[in-house]
Design goal:
With about 120 residues, the chain is an all-beta fold. The chain is about 0% helix and about 60% strand. It contains no helices and eleven strands. The strands form two sheets. Strands 2, 4, 5, 6, 9, 10 and 11 form a seven-stranded mixed beta sheet that branches. Strands 1-3-8-7 form a four-stranded antiparallel beta sheet, with no helix packed on it.
Length: about 120
């Protein structure tokens, strides 16, 4: 069994910063890509940022230059540093990871429970 637990969401004023964390635990053999998605009310879930096991990253155009994704492989944790936040960044942010599990060594997609980020104008 594998769990992803997010933390760090909250309420912030426009122009402020937040740092999200997501720790994976359980029967993990290895972790491939990790990423952050978000879903605003009435909108589809969208990719915010993604990082591979080798450290390659990609970002949504709307967050480039403001958000930074990173990971600590020793801690099975991915981070999202969000700077210069805008009201349109308000959403529930979800952590996702592609994890190879112990015993079977099969690869699965896992999701966190989501953390609310609210940016006030």
């Amino acid at each position: 069994q594998v769990q992803l637990v997010e933390s760090g969401g909250g309420l912030v004023q426009a122009g402020g910063s937040l740092r999200l964390s997501c720790a994976a635990s359980g029967s993990i053999f290895s972790i491939n890509a990790m990423g952050w998605y978000r879903q605003a009310p009435g909108k589809q879930r969208e990719l915010v940022a993604r990082i591979t096991s080798g450290g390659s990253t990609n970002y949504a155009d709307s967050v480039k230059g403001r958000f930074t994704i990173s990971r600590d492989n020793a801690k099975n944790t991915v981070y999202l540093q969000m700077n210069s936040l805008k009201p349109e960044d308000t959403a529930v942010y979800y952590c996702a990871a592609v994890i190879v599990v112990v015993v079977t060594t099969l690869e699965y997609d896992y999701w966190g429970q989501g953390t609310q980020v609210t940016v006030s104008s």
